[in-house]
Fold:
Amino acid sequence: MKNCAFLFTFFLFTLISCTETAVDKPKTKDTIIYSASLRELSDTEYPDNPDITVRNEKYTTTTMKSIEFVKKGELFDMRLISDNSKDDTAHLFKIDLMEFIPTIPEYVREDDYLSLIAIVNQEWNRNQVKWQDDQLKTASHQEFCLVNGEKVTRIDLARNCLNAYLWEVLLYTEVNGSNQVFYHGWFDFPKELYQELYAKRNGKKFDAMADYLVEWKNPPSEKINLSKLRTVISEVHPSYANLSDVMYPISGERKKKQVGVITPTKVTKMTDFYTDASTFATFSPPGFYNRADPRKTELGRFQKLETVSYLKTETNLGERAEFHFNYSDDKGRKTQFIIGGLDISALPRLSTEEANSGHQFSMGIGNHPFYEDYALHQGQCSLTNPNFGVLLDEHGKWLDSHFIGIDGPLLHLDKMDPNKLHVWILSFERHALIAHYLVELRKVREMYYE
Structure:
């Protein structure tokens, strides 16, 4: 999420400790090396690190010197170079960086406001991509590499949810059949390269959006023209159950991120979050969770779910599903939570206990998921991806979901009955789940989809 405030002393430390990105002279016409220094955060600097409980024992002793992006035509080789020796490195070859770049989807480019909302939300939402198993073997051109004596079994590259140049890289090793992170490095993505890729991707210079993507300037709240995103074919009000008056499953990401829930201090059910006093650890530069800077919310807006609508729509990629959840609260506020462009058939079938393995979608237009592997990353182009999620007020004006305190929906079909859809709502920074709805799809499919 975009940062609203962070510790001034830490900001000064970051400015002093980070070196400028280097660009080497071209070796050939199509080969240029872009280099950036890597830094690690100690437990003193990052006391609220959610990985502390699940990381490898070598996490605090593994250091790397720099990261290089070697441009070869349209693709890039990525190299992590160690402090210790030239041989202690990790490599990825022939990777496409373009899908990491915030993108204005082609179908909204004629609408200036939707273009702004799309590009801002893509930068303000994390996109972390992993290479492991056969993908890692193919991309690294070897069975494995060693870093600090550990066999690298997974490499992640992340454009985090702060400003345009703050990125992260992570290395994992396998322990007892599961991957544990043993290196986490932060770096400033080469600015010249970023701006070059941005201009090529969007057909316009980066300068026009720099205030929003670098300085966290808030977009104005204006009316969203949903007809630019899709055409409504039909609409129905499905039956549903509101299951939010129980505790969400504490597993996976939610288990390690419990440290990020500040208030309420004791949570026994999701409805405990339905107050504007709910706060979470914010995400501060260069990319760490910070309980010392509690992020305020307006989660009181979700007090009363009034109606649910299910729309069959025509998108640029064919027929997709859309849901509208309409809320009111004791302050008289009306809030619309809308998620669309959904391919329900692609969702996993899970039990409630397995919910944290469901598909997580971020708020915005054409976004990539928060986490994905490289194959999915390349297969879901943000130029044409019809998925979207928006929060609107009673007048149809855009609300900043990060300010309200949600990150988007988590979706899965029911493990026992694929005609039931589970819709969960992720809190700010996905620290918790704040709602759970079970939507009946049988009659809807009979009427509109079969």
Observations:
- The longest strand covers residues 304-315.
